[in-house]
Design brief:
The protein has 17 helices and 13 strands. With about 425 residues, the protein is of the alpha/beta class. It has 2 domains: about 200 residues, Rossmann fold (3-Layer(aba) Sandwich); about 120 residues, Rossmann fold. Strands 3-2-1-4-5-6 form a 6-stranded parallel beta sheet, with helices on both faces. Strands 11-10-9-12-13 form a 5-stranded parallel beta sheet, with helices on both faces. Strands 7-8 form a two-stranded parallel sheet. Helix 12 crosses helix 13 and helix 13 crosses helix 14.
């Protein structure tokens, strides 16, 4: 395939040479004349291990660095046009899309009208940018997106200092697409790689990039906040505490999915108690730990938000039977202390939904004793509950619930995102 890549910074040059390594013919467009001259001379404009050797291999062969004056020829022959331009944030925190739309305009001014091409944003852009800004912008110019050309996003997950290895040995490839023709063309771009390729919606593709980066930012800020909590309390060796934390087998032996996954909120005995206690002791000592405070606040809000979600599916008929699947705070346990299920049931009752039946493989009796005030009914057989309920709600991710779509066509609210 022939591909044009706008921007030859860390992401753009790595992408260009990576595609060249795959065997594609790549035009790399750079508006900075000094940077372009450096690259044309076979030198990197920045330090990036492995990229220098790739430049030597592909310069003048599969990779052709060009200026805007040669854009017509490049775009005319290209199957895909990739955008790797800067999207800095402005004073209000919003991404500045000036460079991206400028590159789009430059592409549109020379694109062939008789050839289907895919315009692919690799620059980091906020979720909904492609669907709510880029596509409408193109349609205002009379372009029938999905017919005359395709629009997609293909976020990057590169670390400076490791760009080449991260591209060539990617852990996953994400393609945000809106039509099958574009999806097939982008699959062809990556046809020679073995990494998992995920074709998702436009918004999902954009969101995944932010999901990755904001998690890293949160973990860093959380660690920093904990060091401040430790300093405020006093008598704590922060470095030693964190080194010992790193020995926790849950991180060494678990996948990210064990904890970094949405659900109903944390419950059980330890997490609510300890999170609240640490925030309280730090606050008493004179430090308001905002991350801890908001962790608690978010968890406290989850039952209300989930109950509203369930109510939307159930509708206004308060007599419909709601089947709650899972009463313990997590699978593999009969512990119902501070379980999200109880909080959700309580919120449903406050909304007027009192016809509720619960089922748990091991925790029915424990839940009934602990939460007698909720006055719900119980079913001791999974399939009987499915038959009895009008709407089914998964609140604990017991493995046996994973087959529920094969057992019924009734509405299911999957609060654990396990289906």
């Amino acid at each position: 395939m022939t591909i044009t890549v706008f921007g030859l910074g860390f992401v753009g040059l790595t992408t260009s040479l990576g595609f060249a390594e795959y065997g594609h013919n790549v035009y790399g467009v750079e508006i900075n004349s000094e940077r372009l001259a450096t690259i044309k001379g076979g030198q990197l404009p920045f330090l990036e291990p492995g990229l220098d050797e790739a430049l030597t291999r592909h310069l003048g062969n599969h990779f052709h660095p060009i200026g805007i004056d040669k854009l017509d020829e490049a775009v005319k022959h290209s199957d895909c046009v990739y955008y790797c331009v800067g999207t800095p944030y402005g004073l209000d925190g919003q991404a500045d899309l000036t460079y991206l739309f400028s590159a789009l305009d430059q592409t549109l001014s020379v694109r062939p009208t008789d050839k289907y091409q895919v315009l692919v944003v690799k620059s980091t852009i906020p979720p909904s940018t492609t669907s709510q800004k880029i596509i409408p912008y193109l349609e205002e110019k009379g372009i029938n997106v999905g017919k005359a050309l395709g629009v997609a996003n293909n976020p990057e997950f590169l670390r400076e200092g490791h760009c080449w290895d991260d591209f060539i040995k990617a852990d996953r490839i994400v393609l945000g697409v809106s039509d099958e023709r574009s999806a097939e063309m982008l699959r062809n771009v990556y046809s020679t790689v073995n990494e998992p390729i995920h074709c998702v919606s436009l918004n999902t593709g954009e969101f995944i990039k932010y999901l990755s980066n904001t998690l890293l930012a949160t973990l860093i800020s959380y660690s920093n906040e904990m060091s401040l909590v430790a300093d405020t309390i006093g008598g704590i060796d922060v470095a030693t505490a964190f080194r010992i934390l790193h020995e926790d087998k849950r991180w060494g032996g678990a996948t990210m999915a064990s904890y970094v996954y949405p659900g109903c909120g944390y419950g059980g005995y330890c997490l609510p108690k300890d999170t609240n206690a640490l925030y309280a002791v730090a606050n008493t000592a004179g430090f308001d730990a905002q991350i801890l405070k908001n962790v608690i606040s978010t968890n406290d809000q989850m039952p209300t938000q989930i109950a509203k979600k369930i109510a939307h599916v159930v509708g206004t008929n308060k007599q419909r039977i709601i089947g709650i699947l899972g009463l313990s705070f997590k699978p593999g346990s009969d512990d119902v202390r501070d379980t999200p299920s109880a909080k959700i049931i309580n919120q449903l009752r406050l909304l007027g939904y009192t016809n509720i039946v619960g089922y748990d493989p091991v925790a029915n009796d424990e839940f009934e004793q602990y939460y007698a005030n909720l006055a719900i009914c119980y079913e001791n057989d999974y399939e009987k509950l499915i038959d009895r309920a009008d709407v089914l709600v998964i609140t604990t991710a017991w493995p046996e619930f994973s087959n529920i779509r094969q057992l019924t066509e009734k509405p299911i609210v999957d609060c654990r995102y396990m289906l």
